[in-house]
Task: inverse folding
């Protein structure tokens, strides 16, 4: 069997906003502006397939990195001639996903098409009913997808595989509320998840070694992304991480994977965990292992302020930690409490001061358009705090309301959004879909103006520009910063 794992084109990703007066203007920053990152989920599944079913031929096509659009897609797929195609997805990209699936179905009508990724987790029943697919996987596919391959090869019934569903087999679960406390409570069928992450084969990066992956805040053009844990036990009101049980890999397994990356020529590792630093002790244990092995590389992670200690930062810096991205979100204690961030502004100030003193770069992620921001002045006070903590980089997003979050439910209850829009889109994806925002007090046009203003207030400060230039250590850093500056001025 010839198996293709596909990361489809991204030409019709749902927009943040469509201005009737200027349809081409949908915000300040595009996804591409933040960089291109490997499809780790597909790489894990590819490794699992090669381990469990080595008799099959496997292929991976990352249309994003290879800049393959819908016009060129079928030429690439035809060169492979797949019998089975696994397509990853996000809900916001489902129109692209369906376009790709239809084209493959037309050319290879006998091929089995399986939909995975985040979308079947968020909308399992709607996903299973899509006519473009023969099956879906709800959850993680490293165990479920190889089992599906084995069943298809032998002609056996695959509907008994946990997490694998068809339009017919999933109907028996409709209306049932998932009562497993490891998951967000929602109406979904039993998902497939991997408990022992150390048992998984590491991502097979051999198939992407020729591709250009990069981060706008990276220090190198040889960047590897890595997952050291899965799940997030936190309960932020704007976030939907479905698996609440935190599962982590051993420090030995992580360090071994880093060794393999270094041997392939990678110089930088970006940890893509939802929450890397669940405890300071975890960061210390990892840093001690890297130091003990004498590895020389730079790394960064996404983390929370309330699980940082000065000692953990000292250890991380000594082990090569270059940068930490913190989800600060807002600049008031009341706002942090409402978002359920479990930290205070004083903690935020302290951690950013520690990082500055130790030479660890910081990214501060902020949101505007929050329910408690009633005026432009409220938004500007939020940004005042961002300027006050003075991170090395800042990202200012406009709050998007996603299904299965508390803020989405509250907005629907107040009549600010029509919650059915997402389910309708999931049943019939279309190109003109746009995201919902909290526009009770400020319109999306107002928020876009404030977003642009916020970026310019932060990045165009003379002191910041001078400090940023002095801190630039590579041609990669210089070019990415130059691209960002051009975007700001435009």
Result:
């Amino acid at each position: 069997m010839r198996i293709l794992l596909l990361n489809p084109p991204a030409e019709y990703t749902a927009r943040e906003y469509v201005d009737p007066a200027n349809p081409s203007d949908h915000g300040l920053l595009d996804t591409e502006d933040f960089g291109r990152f490997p499809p780790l989920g597909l790489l894990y599944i590819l490794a699992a397939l090669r381990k469990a079913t080595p008799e099959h031929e496997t292929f991976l096509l990352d249309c994003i990195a290879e800049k393959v659009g819908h016009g060129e897609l079928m030429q690439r797929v035809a060169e492979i001639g797949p019998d089975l195609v696994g397509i990853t997805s996000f809900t916001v990209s489902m129109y692209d996903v369906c376009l790709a699936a239809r084209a493959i179905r037309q050319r290879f009508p006998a091929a089995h098409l399986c939909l995975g990724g985040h979308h079947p987790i968020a909308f399992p029943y709607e996903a299973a009913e899509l006519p473009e697919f023969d099956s879906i996987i709800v959850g993680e596919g490293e165990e479920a997808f190889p089992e599906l391959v084995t069943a298809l090869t032998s002609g056996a019934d695959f509907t008994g595989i946990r997490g694998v569903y068809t339009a017919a087999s999933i109907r028996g679960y409709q209306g049932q509320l998932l009562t497993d406390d490891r998951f967000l409570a929602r109406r979904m069928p039993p998902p497939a998840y991997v408990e022992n992450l150390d048992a998984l084969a590491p991502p097979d990066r051999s198939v992407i070694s020729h591709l250009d992956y990069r981060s706008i805040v990276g220090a190198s053009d040889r960047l590897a992304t890595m997952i050291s844990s899965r799940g997030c036990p936190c309960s932020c009101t704007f976030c939907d991480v479905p698996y609440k049980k935190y599962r982590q890999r051993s420090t030995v397994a992580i360090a071994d994977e880093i060794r393999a990356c270094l041997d392939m020529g990678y110089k930088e590792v970006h940890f893509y965990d939802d929450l890397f630093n669940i405890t300071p002790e975890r960061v210390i244990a990892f840093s001690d292992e890297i130091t003990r092995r004498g590895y020389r590389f730079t790394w960064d992670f996404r983390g929370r302020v309330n699980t940082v200690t000065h000692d953990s930062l000292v250890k991380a810096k000594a082990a090569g930690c270059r940068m930490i991205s913190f989800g600060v979100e807002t600049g008031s204690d009341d706002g942090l409490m409402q978002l359920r961030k479990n930290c205070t502004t004083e903690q935020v100030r302290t951690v950013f001061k520690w990082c500055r003193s130790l030479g660890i770069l910081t990214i501060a992620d902020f949101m505007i358009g929050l329910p408690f921001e009633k005026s432009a002045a409220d938004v500007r006070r939020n940004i005042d705090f961002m300027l006050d903590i003075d991170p090395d980089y800042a990202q200012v997003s406009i709050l998007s309301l996603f299904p299965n979050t508390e803020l989405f439910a509250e907005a629907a209850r107040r009549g600010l959004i029509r919650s059915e829009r997402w389910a309708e889109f999931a049943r019939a994806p279309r190109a003109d879909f746009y995201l919902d925002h909290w526009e009770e007090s400020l319109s999306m046009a107002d928020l876009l103006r404030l977003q642009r203003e916020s970026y310019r207030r932060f990045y165009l400060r003379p002191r910041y520009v001078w400090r940023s230039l002095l801190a630039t250590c590579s041609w990669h850093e210089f070019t990415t910063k130059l691209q960002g500056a051009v975007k700001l001025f435009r």
